[in-house]
């Protein structure tokens, strides 16, 4: 993504974000990254506003204080990865034009899933206090979802089979049981699976999966021979193998490289 243009808005909200150690970016509507995101989330507009707290630094009080300013911005991507974020902080943003919520590692619960913005197209609630009962509410939205193996159960997987497909699905802390559940779910674009609990016992379930365009395996406990079997089965899909540290660093570096000052 190097060399992609971001516009940076010099205003009070941007300054407030940066004081907290976060970043505020406004995507150029002609950028390659903007078009990719739009394609992933099935969104028409390409003018995107990203408030980015990837490494914490934000809490409920800050969100409540700046809720009016945030609610005034269209086409929001909100990365709020901090355990100090809870249902109370998200409540004032229920009417915001948010189409990406990245809440990984926060303290949100099932209650927040009852009040998601109608514009939402991508949600990350992995490693939060959200349960499998909570994610069962996500029948029609979003088209992109990140959850963890604890949240992907027989019941939630059964709920997901009632929808036609996900554009993007990521499962963190996955197990062999997670792979069995995933074999029922259709993912059109990208499927990311992370977890050392994925072993050779998962191979039969992998071979029942609908094939996504891209499959990324992170920290799985599979031998080279077993990975070769999967490469053969998923021939025609982009197949990637990595570890969690590299995956997270790539995400951070992509954001840094995308800014042209």
Structure explained in plain terms:
- The protein has about 260 residues and is an alpha/beta fold.
- It has two domains: about 1-130, no CATH class; about 135-260, Ribonuclease Inhibitor (Leucine-rich repeat, LRR (right-handed beta-alpha superhelix)).
- It has helices at about 10-20, 30-40, 60-65, 65-70, 85-90, 130-135, 155-160, 175-180, 205, 225-235, 245-255, and strands at about 5, 25, 50-55, 75-80, 100, 120-125, 145-150, 165-170, 185-195, 215-220, 240.
- An eleven-stranded mixed β-sheet has the order 1-2-3-4-5-6-7-8-9-10-11.
- β8, α8 and β9 form a beta-alpha-beta unit.
Major beta sheet summary = 11 strands, mixed
Would you report the number of β strands? Answer: 11
> Uncertain segments of ≥5 residues (pLDDT<50)?
1-7
Taken as a percent bin, the fraction of beta residues is 15-25%
Helix content: 25-40%
Amino-to-carboxy terminus distance: 15 Å
- The tally of structural domains comes to 2
**Cα-atom radius of gyration:** 18 Å
Mean pLDDT: 87
Distinct helical segment count: 11
Structural shape: globular
Oligomeric state of this protein: single chain
The secondary-structure element order is EHEHEHHEHEEHEHEHEHEHEH
Class computed from helices, strands and strand pairing:
alpha/beta
């Amino acid at each position: 993504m190097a060399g992609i243009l971001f516009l940076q808005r010099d205003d009070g909200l941007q300054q407030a974000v940066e004081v907290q150690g976060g970043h505020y970016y406004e995507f150029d509507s002609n950028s390659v990254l903007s078009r990719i995101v739009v394609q992933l989330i099935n969104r028409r507009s390409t003018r995107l506003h990203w408030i980015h707290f990837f490494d914490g630094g934000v809490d409920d009080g800050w969100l409540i204080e700046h809720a009016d300013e945030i609610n005034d911005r269209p086409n929001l991507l909100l990365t709020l990865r901090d355990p100090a974020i809870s249902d109370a902080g998200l409540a004032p943003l229920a009417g915001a034009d948010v189409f990406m919520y990245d809440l990984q590692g926060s303290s949100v619960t099932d209650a927040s899933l009852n009040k998601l913005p109608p514009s939402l197209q991508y949600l990350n609630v992995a490693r939060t206090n959200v349960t499998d009962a909570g994610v069962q509410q996500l029948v029609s939205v979003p088209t992109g979802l990140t959850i963890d193996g604890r949240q992907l159960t027989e019941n939630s997987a059964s709920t997901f089979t009632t929808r036609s497909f996900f554009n993007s699905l990521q499962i963190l802390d996955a197990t062999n049981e997670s792979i069995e559940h995933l074999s029922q779910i259709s993912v059109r674009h990208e499927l990311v699976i992370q977890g050392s609990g994925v072993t050779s016992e998962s191979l039969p379930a992998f071979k029942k999966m609908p094939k996504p365009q891209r499959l990324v395996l992170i920290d799985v406990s599979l031998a080279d021979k077993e990975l070769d079997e999967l490469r053969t089965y998923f021939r025609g899909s982009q197949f990637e193998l990595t570890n969690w540290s590299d995956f997270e660093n790539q995400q951070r570096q992509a954001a840094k490289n995308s800014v042209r000052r």
